[in-house]
Design brief:
Elements: E1 18-23, H1 38-44, E2 64-69, H2 77-89, E3 96-101, H3 107-115, E4 120-125, H4 145-152, E5 160-163, H5 170-178, E6 182-184, H6 186-191, H7 195-209, E7 212-218, H8 240-247, E8 254-260, H9 271-285
Parallel strand pairs: 1-2, 1-3, 3-8, 4-5, 4-7, 5-6, 7-8
Helix pairs in contact: 2-3, 3-4
Bound molecules: manganese (II) ion.
Length: about 290
C-alpha cells in the first residue's frame, strides 16, 4: 500500500487508467524560474491528492502509473525534445496522459508528439496567448509554444480555443485575430454567468471534428492574487472554481492534459501545489 498520488498509484503499467509524466524544465522561462522543481515537489506532496472530489465523486478505483520525469538538458532544447518523445513512447495501451511541467515551452514538443497522425483539438488555459514569434531571442521559450504548434503541426486553427487570456503584446493580439483563433478572454468569463455553457458548447464542437483533445493548463490562468506560485503572474484572472467548472465539462476525447508553470519557490504556504492536486482530482473525476 502506498500513498503516492492519493494512494491511486499502481505498479502495473498495463492496469493504468492514467499516466503521469514530470517535465522538470525551466530554461524556457523568463527571469522568475523554479518551474523545473515542480514535478518532484508535487510528487512529494501527492499523498494530498483528494480521492474524493469537491462534488463527492469517489476516485478510489482509478489507477495512476507514474512514469517519472523526462531527462532534461537545460542547455539543449532539442535534446530535451527528443527525451520528451522517448518518455511518451514508454507508455502502452490507451490510458490518458497527464504531464506536469516545467515551463510552458515544452507543450510544443509534447503536443507535436501527442498529435502525431491523429487530428487533435487544443484547449489552452493561460493568462498569455503564448504566440510570440520570438521571446528572449528564442523561438522555443515559454512565450511561443502555441505559435510553434500552429506553425509546425497539422493542427487546424479552428480546433484551438484560448481560455482566460488577458495579457498580450500587440503582435500577439493581431496574430490571434489574423488566424481567427477562438478566444474566451478572462474578462468575458468573469462578466458572464453563461461562461460554462459557452465553453462547453465550443469544446464539444471541436471534439466532434477531431480524434482527440489536448488540454494545456498554464496555472497563471488563475488570478495571480490567488495562486502566486508562478513565473509570470497577471492580475484580473479567473478563479479556481471557474477553471474546475470548465474542466468538469471537458468531453471524453481529452487524451492529454498538461499542468504547467508552477514554481514552488514563488509559492506561498504550498497553496499552488495544493491547488494543482485538487485540479488533478477534478480532471480525474471526468473519466469516472
Ligand atoms: Mn503559458
Amino acid at each position: 500500500m502506498n500513498n503516492d498520488w492519493g494512494g491511486l498509484r499502481v505498479e502495473d503499467i498495463h492496469s493504468a487508467d492514467f499516466f503521469i509524466i514530470g517535465i522538470p524544465y525551466d530554461a524556457g522561462a523568463g527571469t522568475r524560474r523554479g518551474q523545473a522543481a515542480a514535478p518532484s515537489y508535487i510528487r512529494n506532496m501527492s499523498y494530498k491528492l483528494p480521492s474524493c472530489t469537491r462534488k463527492g465523486i469517489d476516485l478510489t478505483n482509478l489507477r495512476l502509473f507514474d512514469l517519472g520525469d523526462v531527462e532534461i538538458n537545460q542547455q539543449e532544447i532539442f535534446a530535451t525534445i527528443k527525451n520528451i518523445e522517448k518518455k511518451l513512447d514508454e507508455r502502452c495501451g490507451l490510458a490518458r496522459t497527464i504531464m506536469i511541467g516545467g515551463d510552458h515551452s515544452v507543450t510544443y514538443p509534447s503536443f507535436k508528439k501527442a498529435s502525431g497522425q491523429r487530428s487533435t483539438g487544443l484547449v489552452w488555459f493561460d493568462a498569455h496567448p503564448d504566440v510570440l514569434d520570438t521571446y528572449q531571442n528564442s523561438k522555443y521559450s515559454h512565450g511561443s509554444p502555441l505559435r510553434r504548434i500552429i506553425e509546425d503541426t497539422h493542427i487546424d486553427t479552428d480546433n484551438i480555443m484560448l481560455v482566460g487570456t488577458r495579457f498580450y503584446e500587440l503582435d500577439e493580439f493581431n496574430y490571434i485575430k489574423s488566424k481567427q483563433i477562438y478566444e474566451m478572454p478572462a474578462y468575458e468569463i468573469n462578466d458572464s454567468i453563461e461562461y460554462a455553457t459557452k465553453f462547453s458548447t465550443r469544446v464539444n464542437e471541436i471534439a466532434s471534428r477531431v480524434d482527440q483533445l489536448y488540454v494545456s493548463i498554464d496555472i497563471d490562468v488563475i488570478d495571480s492574487g490567488l495562486i502566486v506560485g508562478t513565473g509570470a503572474p497577471v492580475t484580473g484572472g479567473i478563479t479556481p472554481h471557474q477553471l474546475f467548472t470548465m474542466i468538469n465539462v471537458i468531453p471524453p476525447k481529452a487524451q492529454y492534459f498538461d499542468i504547467m508553470e508552477y514554481s514552488p519557490i514563488c509559492d506561498f504556504n504550498d497553496i499552488g501545489a495544493r491547488f494543482i492536486l485538487v485540479l488533478l482530482s477534478e480532471i480525474l473525476s471526468n473519466f469516472k
